[in-house]
Amino acid sequence: MIQIKTEQEIKLLRENNILVSDTLAEVAKHIRPGVTTLELNAIAETFIRSHGAVPGFLGYGGFPYTLCVSVNEQVVHGFPSEYTLREGDIVSVDCGTIIGGFYGDSAYTFAVGEIDPQVRKLLDVTKEALYKGVEQARAGARVGDISAAVQHCAESNGFSVVRELVGHGLGRDMHEEPEVPNYGNRGRGPLLKEGMVLCIEPMINMGGRAVVFEQDGWTVRTRDRKPSAHFEFAVAIRKGEADVLTDFRRIEDAVRSTT
Ligand code: MG
Ligand code: MG
């Protein structure tokens, strides 16, 4: 059953995803060689709580941290740790909040200092794939239209699409129906209706698409240990173009201010 949100509920979802965007912007200011990913987690938790919200991931299904921090070959769901970021790393930071009983959920992959040009291309293409998916997210389209657009963008640039993890509906629960795969066929899947709220989140690998689940029970990494990138928007479906609830400008302004 795919839920249709009221305008009041979409307002709360926007409030959450703006706070997630601001939290990711705060984290961005601290991403540099020498910082540990646990320090980033602490910064995020303090920031979220100081804004009167609750970290959405902490305790979700037993997840023990505020952020998922996934470095280089880690795809998603990485644990913050004593690992110290190094020049040339990429780091996916996925963040959730709860305000008013609704969730925020958005992610951004950051470069640590100067990165390899091919890795830069992976980041650029993954974000472009997200935007191509969002272009398809409108009332009357189908989930498969989003999926196909993401997949085409990634694969036509020589990258591969993770199959095991997908986007999802967002609301009072972090993972609602429908699933939003990053691969698929146009014209297939559930019909999109005004008032649905979806997370679109391409996970794109530089090498092969195969992934491995680590023994911590959470971390997903590429089997070939080549880098993977991840960007995530929450969007509300409208009759015209999608109403994006996440604000990457806040994050990118913070990135620019630190470089
Ligand atoms: Mg997420
Ligand atoms: Mg998500």
Which properties best describe this structure?
globular; 259 residues; binds magnesium ion; 5 helices; 31% helix; 24% strand; single chain; alpha+beta; Creatine Amidinohydrolase; four-stranded antiparallel sheet
What is the CATH first-level class name? Answer: Alpha Beta
Strand content: 15-25%
Q: What is the total domain count?
A: 1
Q: State the distance separating the first and last CA atoms.
A: 45 Å
Structural class: alpha+beta
Q: Which ligands, by name, code or SMILES, are bound?
A: magnesium ion
Q: What is the CATH H-level superfamily?
A: Creatinase/methionine aminopeptidase superfamily
Strand order of the largest sheet: 8-7-9-14-15
CATH fold-type name: Creatine Amidinohydrolase
Total helix count? Answer: 5
CATH architecture: Alpha-Beta Complex
Would you kindly provide a written description of the structure presented here, covering whatever features stand out?
- By secondary structure, the protein is α+β, with helices and mostly antiparallel strands.
- It has a single domain, classed as Creatinase/methionine aminopeptidase superfamily (Creatine Amidinohydrolase, Alpha-Beta Complex).
- It has five helices and 15 strands.
- It has helices spanning 7-28, 37-50, 117-136, 143-156, 248-258, and strands spanning 54-55, 67-71, 74-76, 90-99, 102-111, 160-161, 167-169, 176-180, 197-200, 203-205, 211-213, 220-222, 228-230, 233-236, 243-244.
- It binds magnesium ion (2 copies).
- Residues 94, 105, 107, 232 line the site of one magnesium ion (MG).
